[in-house]
Amino acid sequence: MLMRLFRKLMPKEERFIDKFAAHSRCMVAAADKLVALMAQSGDQASFLSDLSDIENEADGITYQTIIALHRAFMTPFDRSDIHALIVALDDTVDLIEEVAQRAALYRVLEFSPRMRQLGAMIQSMARLLAEVTPLLTNISGNADRINTLCRQVSNIETEADRVLRDALIDLIAQQPETIVFLGRKEVYELLEAVTDRCDDVADVIEGILLDHV
């Protein structure tokens, strides 16, 4: 209780929230690019290049955040939470790029309806997280909205688990050639893993919320 009161009375270093918001915008951009990739068939080179650029931008924000964390005297909340949140955000963008890379590697040029469904889920989760990160500037005042958005992210992740199970059942029933099976299976699993990483971001934010409300 005393520590919470102390944190409220001390001046806050808000630039970390700006970095979270900037990184979450990279996540939205990556998710949008992934959805666009899966909506078409054919040459994937331009999408891979764009995703690489977004991932590099996100890496730069992560690096800047960690450097700032080492230099900062005051932080808006616990240093371990700042580190956990920026790493969770970065892992999500990295994994979105990995989906596209693996699809290209296995020459998955046609994306199934369930792949596109998972992509749309990732896009929705990214947008929810992009909405929630700026709210961390006033955790107590925005507590209800933060909690609602995080719950929505978690609900989508639960639904993504079901979509993955159904997709793998359908894939096995089709009895494709081994390489085709492995490639499509890996893309499905990576897409679902992105939803897990989005949920990890929400979990970190919910933990911060619990510490401050």
Characterize the structure shown.
This protein has 213 residues and is mostly helical. The protein has a single domain (11-212), classed as Phosphate transport system protein phou homolog 2, domain 2 (Methane Monooxygenase Hydroxylase, Chain G, domain 1, Up-down Bundle). The chain has helices spanning 2-9, 15-39, 45-71, 79-105, 113-132, 143-174, 178-212. The longest helix has 35 residues, at 178-212. The model has no long low-confidence stretch (mean pLDDT 91).
Helix and strand layout, with pairings?
Layout: H1 2-9, H2 15-39, H3 45-71, H4 79-105, H5 113-132, H6 143-174, H7 178-212
Summarize the structure.
By secondary structure, this protein is mainly α. The protein has 7 helices and no strands.
Low-confidence stretches: none
Assign an overall shape.
globular
SSE ordering = HHHHHHH
Query: In percent, how helical is the residue content?
Result: over 70%
Taken together, the total number of domains comes to 1
Amino-to-carboxy terminus distance: 10 Å
How would you sum up the major sheet?
Answer: none
Structural class of the secondary structure composition?
Answer: mainly alpha
CATH class: Mainly Alpha
**CATH-wise, what's the superfamily?**
Phosphate transport system protein phou homolog 2, domain 2
Q: At CATH's second level, what is the architecture? A: Up-down Bundle
